[in-house]
Specification:
The complex is a heterodimer of chains A (465) and B (284). By secondary structure, chain A is α/β, with parallel strands linked by helices. In chain A, 33% of the residues lie in helices and 16% in strands. The radius of gyration of chain A is 23 Å and the shape is globular. Chain B has nine helices and 16 strands. Classes of the chains: A alpha/beta (465), B alpha/beta (284).
């Protein structure tokens, strides 16, 4: 057996100089040869640790083994057995904290590039033009309503339709996908891929109702009259602001608005598309998470000369994935650590023109375990800006909780669920994803969807809550 | 879905549509709005619902063609379907027995005030309506408002119909005449609503206004519609669109309505150019 390469097979990607001028995806993905080469690095452990790190329980050595043999169609089948959205997971999962973190190869060198292989196999299938359909169980006559077509809702839909249940997904926006379509930028997750995965769910028989706001049209209680079970996956759709002086000046956006305009409404293609967006030259992004990185990189592509991350702690405390930070750094995003905005200043027409910041230092660790940022007295300074994007987080959307009596809510305005089942305090109602956890990741929402789907199926069979 | 059952040209550039939307028609209440997207590449924009028609399961919207999106909407014909209509969104108006209520509608704002006025009337309030427009040809829904009100006063900026002047002048006159007013609802251009709230403030007459902020999703997700109420940031889409007018920062509202003026102009010019070409080529 040839010696295993200690590093991942590199993936070709657009150069930073080139990609900041377009919204195309950054990595090109593996060729079949590269994928086979990478798959052969897998040790095929008898007790695969990688699977313990996967919230949706994919048979990882199984599908990688098939790739290594060049048996791509079989790899697709294994993958789709557990995961209805592989092209998305292969792109946006934080594999370094999940499957790849546990890979034995990672102890000596780099782990197997599981994420890249997952993406390869999903893209390969799409390129064949023939989509492998799973077996659908005979109809059970049971009906499930799913509220929200984001990663949690789509996962529940995909799992339950296979089991023979009737599934209807209600989506408030005019396009399905939730955060996959409005939040994550095209250059990280092309919208055509989201469309492809949604089509697959539809082909399995899931009914999708768009532009339907549950709570304003039918309430959860009214849905319960028609459906045997309801799953709430409405996400963390309420943007936080800092309530600083001047935060409502023209040019100050929430990250949700900035990204929704660009992604869902395609404002980067204005005036071909009708939705406008302000193309700033000096753009400040407040926050240090993945959404902040997405916003900063979007700003560059919209023509910013300076796209600046303003983060109150230091680099090590940043919640963003390393890969996202590296991409942003390579593209020329400027990082201002230990800096926090305290006010915005405008011109006479109410347009933001300057940001006033204060320097911070790190004190003792806080509840999150990270060192607490403390303002340094008299360290205020001003810097010119023409667009500000506030990316400091989101709360769960209150629309369903406020219209659903009997739904127990947690301290962070989240819906309280039993982690093992996804059950809420209200009979026949399940919830999962950001509405239950607060803002988290796509794959955790999918994992919660899997858990809830299993529990819903069990309930529909036994009738026991 | 979303079929236009009736189209009426109310005034130059002001159109009324009855749109077949059974699920919205069943649930919508006075004061609520819908968000419309006319075509695949179109933008999402809010319109307050102007009436519900149970007999044909439709809602009525009234709009003025100012930018591309509203102009595009105006090109739809009876029988055609609008791509996306989502709603009802926002909170419903507070419909209580106040006593004497003055409903002030300016320009296109006369339309959204109509269902609120009817509901307030049905609740037993005495309704004094004041409606106004720039000139006679732009005055809309006069007959409907007259039928639903106990008294009606009309103003036009140029004096071409009713009294010359602004709706706020008539409101001032009523107050000066010693009429006891318990509640005011004012809907129209921000500057009109601002002036009306200035008129009622010294007399401490509660004055409800409906804010027409720029919106994207309309469900509280984006924050484009931020308004300042009593110094606090609120979202017009979920906390409103109606607020206590005496607490609204109207200057901020007017600034924020100007964010995309330049882009709106570009869009409209492109649209008009494309359309004139289309007409030349197709002789339509």
């Amino acid at each position: 057996m040839p010696k295993v390469s200690p590093v991942k097979t590199p993936v070709r990607e657009q150069s930073p100089e080139e990609r900041i001028h377009n919204f195309n995806e950054v990595p090109f993905g593996y060729s079949p040869e590269e994928a086979i080469f990478e798959a052969k690095r897998c040790l095929q452990c008898k007790k695969p640790k990688c699977m313990e790190g996967c919230p949706v329980e994919i048979d990882i050595p199984g599908f990688i083994g098939q790739i290594a043999e060049g048996n791509f169609i079989e790899a697709v089948r294994i993958m789709k057995n557990k995961n209805s959205l592989p092209a998305i997971c292969g792109r946006v999962c934080p594999q370094e904290e999940q499957c790849e973190k546990y890979c034995l190869l990672g102890k000596m060198g780099e782990p197997v590039a599981i994420g890249r292989l997952e993406r390869f196999i999903a893209d390969w299938e799409a390129k064949q033009g023939k989509i492998e359909m799973p077996e659908i169980a005979p109809s059970t006559g049971k009906k499930i309503a799913i509220i929200g077509s984001g990663p949690a809702g789509l996962t529940v839909a995909g799992d339950l339709i296979k089991l023979g249940h009737k599934v209807v997904v209600f989506e408030a926006l005019h396009k399905p996908g939730g955060v996959l379509i409005y939040g994550i930028p095209e250059f990280r997750l092309p919208k055509a891929i989201v469309g492809r995965e949604v089509d697959y769910i539809k082909k399995m028989g899931v009914e999708l109702v768009l532009s339907y706001v549950v709570g304003k049209l039918k309430t959860v209680d009214e849905l319960l009259e028609e459906f045997d079970a309801v799953f709430v996956g409405t996400g963390a759709g309420l943007p936080w602001f800092m309530f600083l002086p001047g935060e409502n000046y023209n040019g100050v956006y929430s990250a949700n608005e900035y990204l929704t305009r660009s992604n869902l409404m395609k404002a980067y293609l204005f005036p071909e598309y009708d939705t406008p967006i302000i193309r700033g030259k000096r753009v400040a992004i407040i926050g240090g998470g993945n959404v902040a990185m997405d916003s900063a990189r979007t700003a560059l592509r919209l023509g910013a000369k300076h796209s600046m991350i303003i983060y109150r702690r230091s680099k090590v405390e940043m919640p963003a994935r390393n890969e996202e930070i590296e991409h942003a750094e390579k593209e020329g995003v400027e990082f201002h650590f230990l800096t926090n905005p305290i006010a915005y200043h405008a011109d006479k027409d109410g347009w933001v023109r300057e940001m006033e910041c204060i320097r911070m230092e790190l004190g003792e660790p806080d509840k999150s375990g990270r060192r607490r940022p403390i303002p340094i007295n008299n360290s205020n300074f001003r810097t010119p800006v023409d667009v500000v994007v506030v990316a400091i987080g989101n709360s769960p959307n209150p629309l369903i909780p406020s219209t659903t009596p009997g739904l127990e809510m947690g301290k962070r305005e989240n819906v309280v669920v039993d982690e093992a089942t996804g059950k809420t305090s209200k009979e026949r109602v399940w919830a999962g994803g950001d509405i239950a956890t607060g803002a988290a990741t796509v794959i955790l929402a999918m994992g919660a969807g899997k858990v809830a789907a299993r529990s819903i199926h069990e309930y529909l069979q036994t009738g026991k809550w | 879905m979303n079929k236009i059952l009736r189209k009426v040209v109310l005034a130059p550039d002001i159109k009324l549509f009855e749109i077949e939307t059974p699920s919205i028609a069943e649930k919508v209440q006075p004061g609520q709005f819908v968000i419309i997207k006319t075509h695949e590449k179109g933008e999402r924009f809010p319109l307050t619902v102007a009436d519900v028609n149970p007999q044909n399961h439709s809602i009525t919207i009234v709009f003025q063609e100012v930018g591309k999106s509203s102009t595009y909407l105006g090109t739809f014909k009876e029988g055609e379907e609008i791509l996306d209509v989502v709603g009802p969104l926002g909170k419903a108006s507070e419909i209580e027995l106040f006593g004497t209520v003055v409903c002030v509608g300016g320009g296109i704002g006369v339309a959204p005030i109509y269902p609120i006025l009817k509901a307030l009337k049905a609740k037993g309030n005495k309704i004094i309506s004041i409606i106004g427009a720039k000139n006679k040809s732009l005055l809309i829904l006069e007959d409907e408002i007259r039928k639903a009100s106990d008294e009606l006063y009309i103003t036009t900026d140029d004096g071409s119909y009713g009294k010359k002047g602004f709706v706020s002048n008539e409101l001032t006159r009523l107050i000066k005449d010693g009429i006891e007013i318990n509640h005011v609802v004012a809907i129209g251009p921000p500057i009109m609503m601002k002036v009306v709230t200035d008129v009622t403030r010294p007399y401490k007459i509660k004055t409800i206004v409906s804010l027409n902020s720029i919106m994207v999703d309309g469900t509280g997700m984006c924050g484009a519609c931020r308004v300042e109420i009593d110094g606090k940031t609120k979202f017009a889409c979920v906390d409103g669109p109606e607020f206590d007018g005496h607490l609204v920062n109207f200057d901020l509202l007017m600034n924020r309505l100007n964010i995309y003026l330049k882009e709106e102009k570009t869009s409209l010019e492109n649209f008009k150019n494309e359309n004139s070409n289309c007409c030349k080529n197709k002789n339509c």
